[in-house]
Prior knowledge:
Transcription Regulator spoIIAA
Amino acid sequence: MGDYTVMQTNYSPKVSLKNSGEFHIEGVSLSENSQAFFEPIIQWTDSYCEKPADQTEVKLNLEYLDSGSLGYFNRFLEALNNLHKSGKSSVNVEWCFEDDDQDMEDYGKDIEQMFDFNVNLKAI
């Protein structure tokens, strides 16, 4: 399985998922078809979870997630949470948000409460 990369557009985030355990997602998600965008990411993550790196470092810097993207994004995080709980990889998430973006800060706090992996909230 190779690394997975999607270039950023005005409507979708940049995605870089590496077998080495380095995951980066940044930008906005305003996809007209969230399923078509996120399903390959979820499938890749599910495959990664079968033979993960010892450490999985996830950097998330999202400016906006529309309601259609949110459910798929939570499925991605749930796969990482299951991986962390399995003990096969220690998952650490850095949630970056603009220091004046209360909505994204609050979503980061929700992630902290919803999942078992470590979340570092970082105002930028």
